[in-house]
């Protein structure tokens, strides 16, 4: 009991986030599988049904807090799964209709071109 408040204070991981990570670990029997590279926008196909039920509907802010905590705690597979959640939200199938639909959904003002795509791939390698 003494270590938990001390750990939270040192890491800036709030108690609800820490407890949520514990819940995820217990629910998945401490076995989080590392996701493959994202090639679909169907999240369940990337991170599995159980983990999708736990983190698939989180807001960007909640995902960011969870990612930072998983990073500090060195839970690499959870960190990659969180990145996969974000990647599936912006994944575009190689059709013009899908591109236009995702562009509208994300509220993008600029056209995606080869130069911007290359920059995104360098900045966000989990999206490759």
Describe the sheet with the most strands: none
**Distance separating the two termini:** 42 Å
- Backbone shape: elongated
Count every helix, treating DSSP H or I runs of 4 or more residues as helices: 8
State the total count of DSSP E strands: 0
- Low-pLDDT residue intervals, each spanning 5 or more residues: none
What would the keywords be for this entry?
128 residues; 8 helices; 0% strand
Topology:
Layout: H1 3-11, H2 15-27, H3 43-47, H4 49-55, H5 60-72, H6 76-90, H7 96-106, H8 114-123
Helix pairs in contact: 2-5, 5-6
Structure description:
It contains 8 helices and no strands. By secondary structure, it is mainly alpha-helical.
Structure summarized in a few sentences:
The protein is an all-alpha fold. 65% of the residues lie in helices and 0% in strands.
């Amino acid at each position: 009991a003494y270590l938990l408040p001390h750990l939270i204070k040192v890491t800036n991981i709030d108690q609800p986030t820490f407890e949520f990570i514990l819940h995820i670990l217990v629910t998945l029997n401490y076995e989080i599988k590392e996701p493959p590279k994202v090639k679909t926008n169907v999240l369940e196909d990337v991170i599995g049904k159980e983990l999708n039920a736990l983190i698939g509907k989180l807001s960007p802010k909640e995902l960011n807090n969870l990612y930072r905590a998983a990073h500090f705690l060195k839970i690499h597979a959870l960190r990659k799964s969180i990145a996969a959640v974000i990647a599936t939200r912006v994944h575009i199938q190689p059709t013009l209709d899908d591109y236009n639909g995702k562009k509208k959904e994300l509220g993008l003002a600029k056209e995606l071109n080869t130069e911007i795509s290359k920059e995104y791939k360098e900045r966000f390698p989990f999206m490759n």
